[in-house]
UniProtKB/TrEMBL annotation:
Protein name: Uncharacterized protein
Region of interest (Disordered), ranges: 1-24
Domain of life, per lineage: Eukaryota
Amino acid sequence: MDHHTTDQQQQPKGSARRERVEKERMDAEWTIRFSRVWNRLRIIVASLDRSEMEPEERRVGEEAALR
């Protein structure tokens, strides 16, 4: 039987802080991802509103909105 403990079994003192920092980083990543998707949806809706434009004008407008 192995008596050595692994990091999962015996957490060092700083692990709670590390876990909190990791969770905050993940939350920030998801916030960024969501805002990117949200912006894309807004661009799509705006392009639907401008659907009477010529295709070339619409493409140029979408590229400008992505910047």
